[in-house]
Input
Amino acid sequence: QSALTQPASVSGSPGQSITISCTGTSSDVGGYNYVSWYQQHPGKAPKLMIYDVSKRPSGVSNRFSGSKSGNTASLTISGLQAEDEADYYCSSYTSSSTWVFGGGTKLTVL
Amino acid sequence: QVQLVQSGAEVKKPGASVKVSCKASGYTFTSYYMHWVRQAPGQGLEWMGIINPSGGSTSYAQKFQGRVTMTRDTSTSTVYMELSSLRSEDTAVYYCAYQQLVRNWFDPWGQGTLVTVSS
Output
């Protein structure tokens, strides 16, 4: 199972919006609405930000939103804040009954 | 509130095995799944496998088949991940991550256990 494809880095200024893409295949992202997104600050464990493509867990800011079109899922962060600077990973369930992660995207808040 | 607490850092020599533990609290231990995910230094997350603590059934990523074993001890609500034939490329932080039944996401995660493989 190959890793999902994410851009290595994205950046934005405070207050702006950014979008991180996550591209897979019809055997993972495109085949199931089981895409989740995780935020990871340096030296910390990942934190769930979005599940089932577009749902937010309790306590996660509504500045975070998710969507999917075909084999590509996206995470959008609006109103960027300094604390959003972190690595972001997508994950998907697969047709092999396994899970796969994206390679990760480093978000820099300028 | 679900909490996962992992065992401490390990240093191993190439060819050895390592066993990492993950103790769970705050939920019914046998009603959920537990995953193991690793992260090499400066690299991304890599899914290793899953264990059903209820019956002990497991499923491993093809990459780790034959080298990884996931087990559980229901009396202490602890799951274990043992990786054998260690090589330098196995140096990584190993995380356990909780999955509710009929859900397909990981939340929460353990704090991570650094395993260093060095001669």
User: Anything to note?
Assistant: The mean pLDDT of chain B is 94. Chain B touches chain A through 22 residues (CB under 8 Å).
